[in-house]
Amino acid sequence: MAAALAAAHLLKGFGRVPTAPVAGVAIVVGCLALVALQLRHTRPDPVPAPAREGWTAVELALAFVAVGALDVSIGLLCLPAASLLLERRRLLLPLLAAGAVLVEAARAAGVRDTVDMLLTVALGGTMLYAVTTLALLATRVHAARLTLAASAVTDERLRIASRLGSGLSAGLAEIHDLAARREPSALDALIAVARRTLAAARATAAELRSLSLAPEAASARALLASAGVAADIRIGHREPLGPAGTVLATVLREAVTGVVRVGDARRCEVSTDERAGTVMLRVVSDGVRTAALGADVLAGLADRVREAGGSLTAGLEPDGRFAVEASVAAAAAPPAADPPELRTALGLYYFLLAVFCVKALLFVPAPRLALGVVCAAAFCAFQVRFSIQDATRHARRALLASAVLALLPLPWLGRNWIGAAGILAGSLLIALPLRAGAALAGALVVAAGAIGGSGPAAVLMTAVNALITCVVVYAVLRLVRLVRELQRAAAGLARAVVVTERLRAARDLHDLLGHGLAAILLKAELARRLTDTDPDRCRAELADIVRLAGRGQVELGSLADDSPRLSFTTELASAAGVLEAAAITVELDDEPVPAAAGAVLGVVLREAVTNILRHSRARHARIATSVAGGSARLEVENDGVPDGVTAPGSGIGGLTVRLAEAGGTLAAGPDDGWYLLRAEVPLD
To answer: Which of 145, 215, 534, 627 lies in disulfide reach of 490, CB 3.0 to 4.6 Å?
Structure first.
């Protein structure tokens, strides 16, 4: 930008070389030296104070030699003025202004010309100062986006910890105290507390999951893959969804379950989109029997969607496929406050427009002053509307009106109205694609020179001045856009990490605490049955409940931190004990696995055991681990699979996501009368 501000003075220096070689070369060298001195302000490492003072003195001396001895326009003083602002030497600014006034007085310039030139110095210095400062600030904003994301994660963990600690911690503590009494008479109360706490854990996990469709989409992909249905899932909405996520997740789950249950589809497409504050979900499959079921499959769900203020339709597409479509209003995003960098950039642009108006009206003849005021106000209004607010409606008409206002009044509104052409040219570079904007901006600058200049030299200088204004305006507007983009990117990153953190907490709550509470409930019911027939075994089960409740309290505390690390050996022993307590014979083939892989496989084992207890009539189960080929494998197999089971439960989707994050894979489904779950995790 410093080069752009010095360009007109450089051209004048080159123009004087043929008639006054020494003065012309001195002007060129002085301008180039001043531009070079501006580069010190863009260095990331600060220059020591003594060196700054020395370079500032050199810059001031060069500038005043150029404008005084070499008769260069005092507009060149905008470069040292910017340096004084950047180095916080504002007390020297009045001295610089006084020096400029003395130079203009020595040239016998009128008051109006002196004010005009002082405004030029003020505008150029302020623009250069602000653009340099804002560029550094934008760099810091970009670097701080990770800090913002980390802060968002910390805040979300605190909220999650507060939510979990209110009911679940008290429930686990009560379970621990009741079981520690070792009294069979407390079993009824213990079972009631365990059921209530388990229901609260599942409800909290569902609430955390409902803010995003990602877990349900992962479950849908796993469900379809296990049934041999090719899945094409495209996500086009913005997370988090809020209450809409709960409704759409239910629609997605039921629609995909219907496709898998019927079993004749070969391909299923799932897509989401967000328009005008509404999130739309489409599930399309090619199953003939699925289509025959019609909308009756989702009749009950349609009422729930309507209660949420949305709509649901189901039926045949023109191509014969069956489609389920649901739309629900998305939660309104809270208005984001403009960051200081954006307010500064906008204030800079408004200052530029205000100075343009003052400079332009200075030279408007009195009879045409009213016309000048109207033209300036209309032109600035169009610029603010379409350059700053990114408006697109009627954009072509507005650009055409701005072009007319910039060029048509030139012969009547005086020499300074040429700034309007430069401002418009800079706006065109922002508003249009680069190639088209550059072509139109160039044509506009040439047209401004032809209209505003008389004679080749005047035409050239008028065009150069318009070009300088164009570059300045483009720099300011580009900076405004950059700060806005960084603001949106930072906000998007913060939203993404908050969603990720909530999903992590939901998975851990379901996979760890939920399964532990289910085991506690199972052991408590078993202990109640053994109260009279086997008191010793009853007390042993109560002791095991004490251990499980204590472990649950530790895991609850870890949910607000990073993902808990599990001991696979401990999980395996617990899984075998829970299955044996349910009268299921367990065969173990447990090869030791590394701790990192075991932490992931321990979560999978908990889910597998819970599925055996909840979804089968198993009497035999096999748990095997192995390490080979750079990966650790877990297999959990059980009999007693009900008829018609063709796919894993919805909890498998969360495990699929967790394993994918660790670079692993998971497969589950019927296998020769048994149900087999296989998980693999690569070794680090």
So the answer is: 145
